[in-house]
């Protein structure tokens, strides 16, 4: 249904999701050197545990926030709660250096749990966008809000470059040490406060949906003007329910996407240090610069989706499968295959009392430029393509109606990948090296590609399933009046 989308509210939501995701992702590349500074015995496995704890917070909070918003017909109360959780988590992160060595790990765990729970509001916003958009506008509206969130998540780590001049030691201000690692947390707290004020004044958070049915009602039967019969048979109402298989495939694909990104988030920093013999500072600098390029490409894709008719030219299904294949290609190209020549320099990583990575001795090196260029291009283009198109497809598979609970469930299912992904990847990395973690991702992405090829035809919006039902009924039903027709006009 054209012309009924509330673009003002969609844009307000997009701005919030951008800055909220921005502050959430500040610590992606600086987290590893920061905890090494606090306690050098904290290894890659502990990083995986912390990432998993963040996922636990999101997985628990997302369905609760979604159900809560559905019950009250508004999203602001759960959103305010999420902002407070995020702010407290950032405050703990800011003061980690003031905790004793024995208490610091617990403070880190609580901090990341609260930050993860704070990010559980995204399902609420997707539900609100679904309520504020109609028809073919749905894909563009969800691309606007979801794309804005992904832009924030992508360029957030690059903000680290702004604070690198402060150095690792920083300046002590009472119990607070303001350094390149902690300054982003202070900025995140400011953002938390600003977003709370912003949504209060600029967001219409009502989840009210105009009366509309996902069934074929009597109004779908149109009689011609010369038909005077009041006994004309009516086509019975056919209730349409979401395609559960399609919903599961969408959720599963999002989970695998989360797993593919959590691999880089959890072990990306130690991986680049080992592979390219970087120091902490060099790895932070290179990764931040590369993330800046990823952010620029993500913004370009966001603009393509949000401000052009691209979503009308290319289907969500096509975008999704191309993006999944792109992620598969990334892992194929950056896999340290055993047949590659040479070995990395492992002197710093073996026998120093903090890490026990014997596999490093037989690890072949990658080309530094191949890794960083491939990461920037594929993660900068394919990841936002998949994120935007999959969100739009999932929303349209659900159909018209309140989506708060199902969007929360979708976010929670994706969060499960954030829970187990970092645990599995970091543990596998510590015991078997990056060849094993890359192999896991290659296999999972190959399976997802196969599933999409097999189930491609059923991954369609609910209104297309309704159209097929009407088409089928028009062939099979006979009427006493030849002037009676069935309208196939579908309100999307």
UniProtKB/TrEMBL annotation:
The gene is WBGene00275872. This is Membrane transporter. It is found in: Endomembrane system. It is a multi-pass membrane protein. One of its GO terms (molecular function) is transmembrane transporter activity. It holds the Pfam family MFS_1. Keywords: Membrane, Transmembrane, Transmembrane helix, Transport. It comes from the Eukaryota. InterPro entries: MFS (IPR011701), MFS_Domain-Containing_Protein (IPR051068), MFS_trans_sf (IPR036259). GO terms for cellular component: endomembrane system; lysosomal membrane.
